[in-house]
Amino acid sequence: MVTYTPPGWPAGVHPPGSEDFESTAVGWLLDAVPPDYRLHGVLRRYPVALATMARHHSRACVEGARQGYRTARTDLADALPPHAVDSVLAAYREEGARLAAVARAVGLVERALRGEVFTPPMSAEPKPARPQAAAPQASELRPTAPKTAGAERAAARTGQVSGGADEQQGPARQRPARQREAT
Prior knowledge:
By secondary structure, the chain is mostly helical.
């Protein structure tokens, strides 16, 4: 049975539902958090707890990188030459992208550990075009009585726009056949 894994699923983590999913997920999550997290046996026994802590940690890392990027020029202007500050900003951009990808992957693993089943998106194949109906001839259009002010307000509340041949036919199509014949 082939299990779908969504885009951004971490390499090295087996698909959800496979025999080794939980153990590979725990190993990958422990690599995504500070090494001291390995000292807590509860995190190995309860992978969802580890995933939750990893989610918080990875999001904090992303936010820290964003804050560092925002303030790097002012924080480092006195200590580094401009070209070095530009290099620091490039490092922040690179690391920020990597950290954001890790945070997304941690979120996917956590959702899978909580039992969510991922399904592939519907195919993006174009739908066949429906044949267009020919525009009605002027002789086919039935004149309708002009709307009253009250009817115009009601039409405005329901989102109908006044005017045009299509609108003249619209109300006739919406009434039952017996009522159409009576008018």
